[in-house]
Amino acid sequence: MGTFVLVHGAWHGAWCWERVRKHLTARGHQVVTPELPSDVAGSGRAEYLAAVNDALESRSEVVLVAHSMSGLVAPLATGNPAVKSLILLAALVPRPEVAWQANGLEPFPEQMRGRLARMNYDELGRSTLDAAVATEIFYHDCAPADSADAVARLRPDASVIYQQTCPALPERRVPTTYVSCRQDRAVDGEWNAAVAQDVLGADVQELDAGHSPFWSMPERLGNLLVDLATR
């Protein structure tokens, strides 16, 4: 059986993987869900990468899965010998020597572009989303009660990582798959998948889901992760 390290994206936390964890552990796999300090003002790539590497400590043959924002961190963790393969799920994909904000709005679909232009920030400089926007962008394909449950758990997000220049990627490379979600309203899967192919040599898969398949179709996503891990 395999070991999966599942990393959450912006505004979320380790909780978002609880439904996928249930299906993976039922099949005998080990699941680790690190908590990124993404709600801590001033935290950025170094702090997030440290949290991922802590999760990899004393492990081997790990399938590292990164959702959304954590795609800016996970490729840097592939230098860790514990990582066997990398799966980028509806993820942002970094380009070495380029800061994410230099991409402008190009990596995002129209629904998200408008929201980013009108983002709210708290007194600590963290971005926040109101419930209606979060539901529309992240959970539009979920049942209303499921959407409400998830949205109630969202938290402010530090914005430092988007301003930081991505360093050179590790020389060590692992098999990488980019999973694009066809109904994604938060991330342009086609744009980011193309970068993943160019920079990481990734294969590309599609899932007929919105941005949060870990919540809308956890069993189907779990099966896909296992399938990709065993190829």
Automatic annotation (TrEMBL):
This is Alpha/beta fold hydrolase. InterPro entries: AB_hydrolase_1, AB_hydrolase_fold, Sec-Metab_Biosynth_Hydrolase. Residues 4-221 form the AB hydrolase-1 domain. Keywords: Hydrolase. It holds the Pfam family Abhydrolase_6. It comes from the Bacteria. It comes from Streptomyces silvisoli. Signal peptide: none annotated. The lineage of its organism: Bacteria, Bacillati, Actinomycetota, Actinomycetes, Kitasatosporales. The keyword Hydrolase applies. GO terms for molecular function: hydrolase activity.
